[in-house]
Design goal:
The structure is a single chain. The chain has twelve helices and five strands. By secondary structure, it is an alpha/beta fold. The protein has a five-stranded mixed sheet with strand order 1-2-3-4-5, with helices on both faces. Helix 11 links the parallel strand 4 and strand 5. Helix 1 packs across helix 9, helix 2 packs across helix 4 and helix 6 runs antiparallel to helix 9. It is globular. The mean pLDDT is 92.
């Protein structure tokens, strides 16, 4: 079996970053997808992004054909997340099928599960988990202890080997069924990457296009607050003398209220400590109208990801001295009662 060290998550992370780079280049060359031509669609990833973003099934279409579909659907809103993630899903499904085949070969058609092999190949854990009929990490932990697709200790591998031997009936293992069960795992991976990588990458690119100085969360220690210090997704120009911060958040209608409370306290905490700090929230997903209205009473800007370029122009104006861009001053302090 060929050597393999990358997990499904790591492979998806790599692919989504490649797709994002292709999209950003495509958006820049086509003026935000408003002036698309076949010359912009030489890469297969670019063609897939456009087709998927327009709601069309992936197909082996030429640059001219994709451009023509774009012209036919000019009134259809482009779904950025679907466009970017279509290639990620396709890649993950291909890799998952490869993982299944590798495991089948190494185990003699799922007839033997050598603990040494399991410990040496933790990246196969998602397939192994579904072979055992276990569909949650908590249940898996109950049976074999703490494991991940990065590490399976030898004791845990021995327990996992015993569990698989007891539960797997080779004649009843169907590749299609295992890969179908794995879809929930793939969806979880992609959902996490969209929130963690996709949206922040788009904001990052917009700031760079305007030549603004900024730091991302992993590039600085903390942003001072009234109650406690912690980091925003972006701070401009730096955390020592901050003028603005940007938080990026994707939500669902089910979690909107919880996320709103979290983000509003962050803004109050930071703006209360640093007068004149511009608070910006970039949103995506199914926020409720009420939560957006409430957050706009704390944040100076609450803007959808699709309007990020316009937003960055406003931030730039504020940094250059246009104080009309600051809407809220927050007087928040904690002092002894006596």
């Amino acid at each position: 079996m060929p050597a393999q060290t990358q997990t499904l998550y790591q492979l998806a992370d790599k692919e989504i970053r490649l797709c994002i780079d292709v999209y950003l280049k495509l958006a820049e060359e086509s003026r935000g997808l408003t002036d698309l031509s076949p010359d912009h669609l030489s890469e297969a990833r670019a063609r897939l992004i456009i087709l998927a973003g327009l709601g069309l099934a992936p197909q082996d279409a030429s640059a001219d054909e994709v451009c023509e579909e774009w012209k036919r659907r000019r009134a259809v809103p482009f779904d950025l997340e679907t466009g970017i993630t279509a290639g990620v899903y396709a890649n993950l499904r291909t890799v998952s099928a490869s993982f299944y085949d590798q495991l089948s070969e190494a185990t003699g058609g799922f007839t033997r599960f050598d603990p040494e092999f399991l410990s040496a190949n933790p990246f196969l854990l998602p397939i192994l988990q579904h072979l055992a009929g276990i569909f949650s990490k908590s249940k898996l932990k109950e049976h074999v202890g703490s494991v991940s697709d990065n590490n399976i200790s030898k004791p845990a591998a021995a327990r996992l080997s015993k569990l698989l031997a007891e539960r797997v009936v080779p004649a009843y293992v169907a590749k299609g069924e295992i890969l179908k069960r794995l879809e929930a795992t793939l969806e979880g991976i992609v959902r996490d990457l969209v929130g963690r990588v996709l949206l922040e990458s788009i904001v990052d690119a917009a700031l760079r296009r305007r030549g603004l100085t900024f730091l991302r969360e992993e590039q600085y220690e903390s942003l001072a607050g009234v109650v406690y210090d912690f980091r925003a997704d972006f701070v401009l120009p730096d955390a020592t003398q901050p003028r603005a911060f940007i938080e990026v958040r994707k939500s669902s209608s089910r979690h909107a209220s919880l996320y709103a409370k979290d983000k509003m306290f962050s803004a109050i905490n930071w703006k209360g400590r640093t007068p004149g700090l511009l608070a910006v929230l970039v949103v995506d997903g199914e926020w409720t109208g009420e939560t957006l209205r409430v957050m706009a009473n704390v944040f100076d800007y609450v803007v959808p990801i699709s309007r990020v370029d316009e937003l960055v122009q406003s931030i730039e104006a504020y940094l250059n001295g246009d104080t009309t861009k600051l809407k809220w001053l927050i007087d928040f302090r904690i002092a002894p009662a006596s």
